[in-house]
Amino acid sequence: MKLPTSPLQLVSHYFQRGYFPLNAQEAEALAAYCTRRQIKRRQLLLQTGEICRHVYFVVAGCLRLYAVDTGGKAHNLQFAVENEWLSDLASFYAEQPSGVFIEALESTSVLQISHDDLLDLFVRFHKFDRNFRILIERQYLQLQDRLLQSISTPAEARYRAFLAQYPHWAARLPNTQIAAYLGITPEFLSKIRRDQASAHRRQP
Amino acid sequence: MKLPTSPLQLVSHYFQRGYFPLNAQEAEALAAYCTRRQIKRRQLLLQTGEICRHVYFVVAGCLRLYAVDTGGKAHNLQFAVENEWLSDLASFYAEQPSGVFIEALESTSVLQISHDDLLDLFVRFHKFDRNFRILIERQYLQLQDRLLQSISTPAEARYRAFLAQYPHWAARLPNTQIAAYLGITPEFLSKIRRDQASAHRRQP
DNA sequence: CAGGACCCTTAACCTAGCTTAAGGAATAGC
DNA sequence: GCTATTCCTTAAGCTAGGTTAAGGGTCCTG
User: Fold this and answer.
1) Which residues in chain A have their CB less than 8 angstroms from residue B145's CB?
2) Residue ranges of the Cyclic nucleotide-binding domain (chains A, B) (predicted)?
3) Coil, strand, or helix at residue A137?
């Protein structure tokens, strides 16, 4: 049973590492529910007030999930590049209006699964239930860690932790986006980078 | 079908507001799985490194869930008073070592359900599955909101928001605990309170 | 090739919130 | 009811990080 195209192979291969791997039948069902979608740089996949109706799997490109505060400033909650899932899970599962935005930072190609189709998969194959619960657990943990870091760790250490934990994000994201993730201004991030560079030169 | 004691009635009544209410059979099953437990002030229900094996429902008293940073300072992630659930959900569901502590801030009486028993309830009654998923969704949302607030809102506004959103917590918690929740020092909270009081006197 | 739109950096100045230290008020626990 | 903690407050420095303004680099796009 061959899968139709390479992006669809990608999705099912995603669940190889750290999840319950799919068998041929499950992979096929997943592939059948996935829809391809192309998004231009700057285009929104979700806006505040809308109900988030899909989970997205990035085939190529880069997305960010962000919220806008009362002062109009954007704060990044999450990124997703190739081989990563993204959704506003709270809005998606509860079917309630979202408080965040999802935007393409580059020209991006995604596979999307709708809420109804995903529930269908959950009912037909228990494994998806488990895999997506692991997904939400991981996001929960990640969120808890970030909250702790943001109230207990200075920006310089947070930046170092970010580089260590998400090197693949750091490598391709503009510093303005990283700053909006760390909760600091681009100017201050620039200063941190300068200080780290000089500290590194002194102690190589 | 009468429930044996008043605390057990409490638990099933919890699901009346905003959840899927239980019928007599479900309430009885829930009651059958609940174990009563008494904790003294300062006593720990969970320590870092342990797997969190129970969800707790507070009958009387007050719990906090907190993490300790590398500098040894405690940061409160959540409180629970009468009629509220508390657990390290990430550790509980994934059955992985926890990174947080749960401690009684007062002499506290809880009902606890073990992981296995809860899964049993999930299988026997679909409604528990849904109710506990709503629970984790709400916690997820709450966590996301707090993260946003902590990186976008000054301490004074965060304190006001806390008072507005959790008046029942604010009324009984010492300010040291509230400060550790807001991510500020008790000294600075004291200053905020003084400033707010004088601003209020000027503009009643 | 020219002109925007981003993006990165620097520097001077400013402020929110931390640290330390200390005294007084309120509780917990015996 | 007494005593030891815990808790709250004040105040004087101090630091992390924000703000504003400006210059320069790079890459799309017409």
Assistant:
1) 99
2) 45-122
3) helix
pLDDT tens digits for range A58-76: 999 999 999 999 889 999 9
Say whether both A54 and A124 belong to one domain: yes
Please name the amino acid found at residue A128: F
Identify the helix (H) or strand (E) that includes residue A188. Answer: helix A186-202
Q: pLDDT category, A201, cuts 50, 70, 90?
A: low
Using the predicted structure, report yes or no on whether residue A134 has a pLDDT greater than 70. Answer: yes
The reply to whether the CB atom of residue B75 sits less than 7 A from any atom in nucleic acid chain C is: no
- Cβ of B143 within 8 Å of Cβ of A148? The answer is no
| Residue B1 within a domain | no
Q: B106 CA, D6 C1': separation in Å?
A: 13
Q: How far is CA A100 from the centre of its chain?
A: 13
Strand, coil or helix: B117: helix
Question: Which residues lie across from A58 on neighbouring strands?
Answer: A110
* pLDDT tens digits for range A75-90: 999 999 998 999 999 8
> Mean per-residue pLDDT for A166-182?
96
Domain count of the fold of chain B: 2
Q: Domain holding B87: CATH number?
A: 2.60.120.10
Residue A1 falls inside a structural domain? no
In this structure, the answer to whether residues A148 and A160 fall within a common structural domain is no
Two tokens at A31?
């592939």
Q: For the segment A20-52, what is each residue's pLDDT rounded down to a tens digit?
A: 777 788 888 898 999 999 999 999 999 999 999
Residues spanned by the domain of A204: 153-204
